[in-house]
Amino acid sequence: MLKLHDFCNRAKNLFDQEYIGYGLSLESALGFNYMLRGVPRQFGAEATIRF
User: Fold this and answer.
1) pTM listed for this prediction
2) At the top level of its lineage, which domain of life is listed (predicted)?
């Protein structure tokens, strides 16, 4: 007999918004700014079945 032991679902940035995840102001020292975009839309699920 199969038994669902564990189930997990996850989502990040579900509406796929563009945003800056990290930024560093280097304008005064090097003349530019450093910015990283946030993660794109991600979703998934996991299940563990034992028998």
Assistant:
1) 0.53
2) Bacteria
Per DSSP, the residues of 1-47 read: --EEEEEEEEEESTT----EEEEEEEHHHHSEEEEEEPP--EEEEEE
**Could you count the other beta carbons within 10 Å of the beta carbon of residue 50?**
9
2-50 pLDDT, tens digit each:
787 888 899 999 898 999 989 998 888 888 999 999 989 999 999 888 8
Q: How far is CA 2 from CA 9, 45, 46, 48, 51, in A?
A: 20, 19, 16, 10, 5
